[in-house]
Amino acid sequence: VRTPLQGILQLGEELKPKSLDVRQEELGAMVDKEMAATSAAIEDAVRRIEDMMNQARHESSGVKLEVNERILNSCSGLMKAIRLLVMTSTSLQKEIVDSGRGGWRGWKGLGWESLPLRESADKVVLHKGKYEELIVCSHEIAASTAQLVAASKVKANKHSPHLSRLQECSRTVNERAANVVASTKSGQEQIEDRDTMDFSGMSLIKLKKQEMEIQVRVLELEKTLEVERMRLGELRKQHYVLAGVMGTPSEEDTNRPGAAPRSGASKKPPLAQKPTVAPRQDHQLDKKDGVYSAQLMNY
């Protein structure tokens, strides 16, 4: 009996969460240490964006300067909102740790996600990057913010003032992220050259050939889009598994392109069929129905 009991005890030790091996004071020290590293990363990103704004004022003018300042200002505002969110989250994490409920250091991911946003903004200002990268980074920051709030609500006291403050900061981050997306799209429309299609001098055969080539290209892009959406869905599933997030994805994730529709939601209800009534024969016609047989008369 002793041998199987020892095996069960060993399996239980292996299944025990690793965070339980850390004492409460050690966990608090880990939170402080990671908080300092995260704050340093955000502060560096804010300084770099300010440097880029000063550089843009010297190297660009006109529409380009206006677009660059608008994008960089929106990125700077988002960074400052993330910094405030991290500080608020740290206070909440300390409260959770002091209550003996462990901790959730989701703000750590937010800090490091600010680096790709800064790099993407730098590339866009230097015309070496894609505007879509800034949009994707903003969406990822909004998604991480939603995960942070959801995980904090699970462990924190629902009446905690730090939790209410965290929710307010998360709304500010989402608004600033949406502002980055809007300014980026607006700047993209202003900067990128729109090639005007000139069909003058083209014969009917050439027009038809180009039409067929474009149709083939559209089908190829649709197929590529379908495959990439499937890959994105699988990557998100794996991300949730590795991040240890239980439950279904957030509402924002389900509204993104490539999110699988819920089963039965897109099925239309069957249309009601009109009952089939057999036509009456001539001998069945009755005057009560208001139907009379017509007679042909010759005059």
Quick synopsis:
With 299 residues, the chain is mainly α.
Overview of the structural elements:
- With 299 residues, the chain is mostly helical.
- The chain contains 8 helices and no strands.
- α2 (24-59) packs parallel to α4, α4 runs antiparallel to α5 and α5 runs antiparallel to α6 (161-191).
- The radius of gyration is 31 Å and the shape is flat.
- The termini are far apart.
- Residues 247-291 are annotated as: Disordered.
- It is found in: Cytoplasm.
- Residues 19-243 form the I/LWEQ domain.
- It comes from Spermophilus dauricus (Daurian ground squirrel).
Q: How are the SSEs ordered, and which strands pair?
A:
Blueprint lengths: L1 H14 L8 H36 L2 H37 L8 H19 L5 H25 L5 H31 L12 H40 L7 H5 L44
What structural class is derived from the secondary structure elements?
mainly alpha
Number of E strands? 0
Distance between the termini: 117 Å
Spell out the helices and strands N to C. HHHHHHHH
Which features characterize this protein?
mainly alpha; ILWEQ_dom; flat; 299 residues; clathrin light chain binding; 8 helices; phosphatidylinositol-3,4-bisphosphate binding; single chain
